[in-house]
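[job 0417] fold request received: MFS general substrate transporter
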Amino acid sequence: VDIFLVTWDGPDDPANPQNWATGKKFLVMIILCVNTFCVTIGSADVSPAINRVKLQYGISTEVATLMLTFYVFGWATGPLIFSPASEIFGRNSVYRPTWALFVLFNLGCGLSSNITSLLICRLFAGVFSSTATAVGFGSAYDMFHRTPPPPFVS
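[job 0417] inference complete; emitting structure tokens
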């Protein structure tokens, strides 16, 4: 994979997110905010189903609560991969596949026939959901700030 430095064709280049129309920036921010909301609520949205999952799979409360733990663990580890990847390959190159995989692993959660497959799907749903929070700030920064970001911002 070739790595290249993104440059613009002058200060008015329409491909530069800072030059996008206000409406487009607003739409992108709405999409990022809705996605962040969805993946954040995704960590706890299984809480009401814990008793049903316990009955369906014949497991203890402790094992059933691992559905939350696995998702949050994946959500915490995903940025270690996706934040640097978004700097190297671009934001959209990270967003598109991870959002698709997030949806597919959530579908896998619904289709799981045992607790092991459910927990694995929750883990990977968490990993792929992390781009919303890990890369979203970088996208907002790309659209609205004209100065270079501090070194700790990816």
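[job 0417] notes: The helical segments are 22-44, 50-57, 61-64, 66-89, 91-111, 115-129, 131-144. The mean pLDDT is 90.
[job 0417] exit 0
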